[in-house]
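Hi there,

I know you've been waiting on this one. I reran it after we fixed the sequence typo, so this is the corrected version. Both the input and the resulting structure follow.
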Amino acid sequence: MKKMRNQPKGSNKKVMGIVFGIVLLVLLSTGGYIYYRNWKAEQLAIERREEVESLVDDYLKAKASTHFEDYAETLSEQSVTAEGYTKQELAERYETIFQAIGVDEVEIIDHEIIYDEETDVYSFTYSLGMTTVLGEIETLNYQSAIYETEDFKAIHWDHSLFFPNMVEGDTVKLSYTEPNRGSIYDRNGNMLAGEGDAYEAGLYPAVLGEAEERENRLATVSDTFDISVEALEQLLSQNWVTQESFVPFTIVDANETPEVSGVLYQQTTDRLYPLGEAAAHLIGYVGDVSAEDIENNPLLQSEQVVGKSGLEYRFDKELRGEMGGQIALADSEGETREVVIERERKNGESLRLTINSDIQAELYASFESEPGAASLMDPKSGELLALTSSPSYDPQLFARGISQADYDAYIEDENQPFLNRFTSRYAPGSTFKILTSLILLDSGVTTPEKSNTIEGLNWSSDREGFGDRQITRVNDTVTEVDLTDALVYSDNIYFAMEALELGLNDFVENILKFPFSEDFELPLTMEPAQLANNNEISEITLLADTAYGQGEILMNTIHQQTFYTPVLNGGEFVYPQLILQEEEAMTEAIISSESSTLVRDILVETVTSPNGTSYPLNDLEYSVGAKTGTAEIAGEDENETNGFLYVFDEQDESYSFVGFLEGQKSGDVIDQFYPFFTTVKTLID
């Protein structure tokens, strides 16, 4: 009986176990499903956020790089359309606004993505800074929402994403005031470039007449002012022109206002260049901003004037100053609603040069349009007193807008008036023997007493590698030649002999004490002086040629001036200066005082000796030292040369001079500049 009663209990346990297992399985299955569902939802949420982050990143990158077509593609089509644009139109308006206010750089400072659990909506905020034509806007704070559908995500756009607080109907308004451009002065305060009185010439239609009379009078205006009749007719056809209008067509100097029927004058101011051609390559000129200028510097505005060449170009930022004004949001009535940025104008800085304008004008006039260049320096301070290049051009024509005919005349001039010859490099010829003399003396190879036997006009070395190369001198009067004779007679053979005795490596090591390949940090566009290609002399024939100023040497007049300063400063090299400043000249001792003094004395003897190449300068009323040089022009016709001349005031050491004439000999250079040397000391401060 007990067994019969106990049997159901075992069955119940079994049933209960099955039920429990089923329940457990259901619970596990349900839990697994719930876990999976939650995991899946979490993964979708992560993917959703990553997509939002990617979208926001694309939006911010496009805005920071001002790629507005890419920027527009991140926006919701619906929101853009609601604000009255297509995406293409919106991208173009961004481009227009940013160009108008001169946006140069946009920097995203920070951003934050925000998720609202109650609304299940993503939004984001960000801050950016931008550089505009009026300076830096440090922080602009923006916010927007993310528009989402099952298929895509996009940024919700409205006008506040142009500028915070901007609404539909607003415009971005830029108003500005131009600063006064700084002037350029010489060492004595004389203006080399700056504002001065001028006259604006304009047509007065009421006086031009009709038919044939009008035609004749316009032709007279055209001939007088070098402007085409077509250009005049175009000006007269403008919508605003009436019979009583003043129609400006050019600006003229105060002393250039001829009486012409139909032309009136109004006083104005203009950027003037008092020295004209005499300082054009140095000072340069200004002109209206071009599209290329704005591309290079987006902060520029189309109405501005900028430096186009010379110091006007090199110091344009300092001379131009900073415009003042404001960038503001204006309502539909044009009234300012909010100022985004405001700045006071800052007038440009003025420059004061070491140049003496009287000397500059006198030196340029000395060329009489012959092609060449010259510089004058204070050898003690390194201050450049004059830098001239001939022929030249009229900077005023360019500043006021040169005619095609005038421009073509300059371009077609075989003497290349646009070429700046005082910064261009040439073989220096025999003036280079000054440097060779200094290093030969310092090395000990050459002494004042030592002489070389030289017979005839030609010589060749028997050293290996010299071959049948012939060195030529111009005077064979002296056969026992010492250093004094070599400089007085400018004997190429002597310097070739001495350089070969010194040896290639020692010659190069000593000559490179001078700053070949070094930038003088002058505000001029010029290459450094060159001793040889790559500053390497690997052949003894090139060594011989280099010793007397040929070979592969390239120097401009400023290089020569500066490299010869040890002669007048006890062996110290004085660096050149063009901007007048209180600091003393930078110097470097590179030659012994004994060597420099000896060379100085010999250079005086080249003038005082009747046999000296510079003897014609002995007629001056004061004592000078000098060295002539005639350099062959590589690749030119036989006997084609440039004539060089180095001169210094031995009496007062008030100046040193280096000048050259293209296609001429050194004797021609002395003749050309002799009148200048008779007056220059009266012009020095």
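Quick highlight: The longest strand covers residues 135-148.

Best,
R. S.
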